[in-house]
Amino acid sequence: MPRLLPPLLLLAVAFAVGRVSSHEESGEWECESDSGEIRLRAEFRPGVVALDGRPDDWDAVGGSEFALLPALDPDDDDEYNGGKMTVKALHDGKDVFFLLQVDGDYVYSPGKSNKCPSVALMFQIGQSATYHNMGGCKEGTDTCTSKTCKGHEVDIMHFSIGNAIPGRLYGGNPIDIAKGNGGDRFGHLVDLYAWTPHCRYLDGTGPSGNDSSAQNNWRGAWWHSSLSVQSGFVQEDSPYGSDGQKGTYYFEFSRPLRTMDRLQQDVQFTIGESSKISVAFWYPVDGTPWHGSGHFTISCDWVSLDITSGGTTLTKSKSTSSWDVASVFSFLFSAIALCLSIFAIYRISRPRSFQFSPMEEVSME
User: Which of 267, 303, 335, 311 is nearest to 40 (CA)?
Assistant: First the structure.
């Protein structure tokens, strides 16, 4: 099958800012996906999870399991050999949370992101934004702008863990937020938008100049099941574990359902409605550093994400309470009516007494 443009092409740290060069398409895109049959559900569950990268507080939350296939050529024969990825989501009415878990031997090379696992989330913003070609705008690198590519916007969160301490929180921070962009100088959990793989930028930056109103709204952390320290790691503990240890990687993220974005660079989640999502995963298979287009994805098309409402449960509870009050009044009314009926029957059926006067005492004048 010809090599094609990756639908979720994200490069390492050096390519996080500004425009990047990408591969050129050499054939027609073909996708045979069952993503239409799979729906992720972000249920309303306030106060359930703490954002620390660890999965324990997600045990009672259901998820969906996906095979990880190469984005360039989604062939089952080239499936990620570590196992499938489980994706879980929930919201608390204010923020939406995600947990990604995937088996993989522990590997960590400090400061070398392409020798460490990496993940990304991509969401549809514009109505015309396609999964393939990261939004699918037809404009080239010299002509893609918010006007020429209007409607093709996608929102991207990318986390490269080469500089991130396990269990520590990364993403939006006061220093980078003050700069007015979606960067993260500490852990490279960055907030981007794109119209195509050729036109991808940090929030707040772009071909028409920068806008200081943007910020990184994402927070996230990572963990591996082979790590045993519970009190917390610091940078001096790097590489935090032993390479080759069997286990599972966990990546946990959160973001407000609604952001203050006014540039069409953030997806806006609405309770009771659906959004479109994709998930990508990079891993240095057999110790070989990964490259930007060498990632795996959960599907070759968008997957639906339902932000469910807690109203069904609340309405049911309210309805039940109203029924209970009505039942009490109905019972009291019936009891009173029954008592009145018994009293009336008693009065009617009770023998009546009459005063008897002998006939002879009655005057017969």
Answer: 303
Q: Distance (Å, rounded) from C-alpha 44 to C-alpha 231? A: 30
pLDDT, one tens digit per residue, over 174-228 is 999 999 999 999 999 999 999 999 999 999 999 988 888 899 999 999 999 999 8
The position carrying tokens 């700069």 is 179
Distance spanning both ends of the chain, measured CA to CA: 133
Q: How far is CA 361 from CA 24, 224, 310, 354, 358, in A?
A: 132, 115, 88, 16, 6
Half-sphere exposure of 342 (CA within 13 A, CB side): 6
Sequence-separated (6 or more) residues with CB below 8 Å from residue 316: none
Residue 59: CA count within 13 A, CB half-sphere? 2
C-alpha–C-alpha distance, residues 113 and 99, integer Å: 20
Q: Which H or E run includes 317?
A: helix 311-349
Q: Phi and psi of 217, rounded to 5°?
A: -90, 0
Name every residue whose Cβ is closer than 8 Å to that of residue 336 and which is 6 or more positions away in sequence. Answer: none
**Residue holding tokens 């503990």?**
237
pTM of the shown model:
0.78
How many other CB atoms are there within 10 angstroms of residue 79's CB atom?
15
Give burial (CB, 10 Å; 0-12/13-18/19+) of 129.
buried
Element (H, E) at 324: helix 311-349
Could you give the dihedral angle defined by the CA atoms of residues 40, 70, 153 and 255, in that order, rounded to the nearest 10 degrees? 50
Q: Is residue 111 within 8 Å of 262, Cβ to Cβ?
A: no
Q: State the amino acid at position 81 in one-letter form.
A: N
Distance CA 305, CA 42 (A): 7
Rounded to 5°, the CA angle 164-166-170 comes to 50
pLDDT digits (tens, 9 = 90+) for 263-297: 999 999 999 999 999 999 999 999 999 988 889 99
Residue type, 297: T
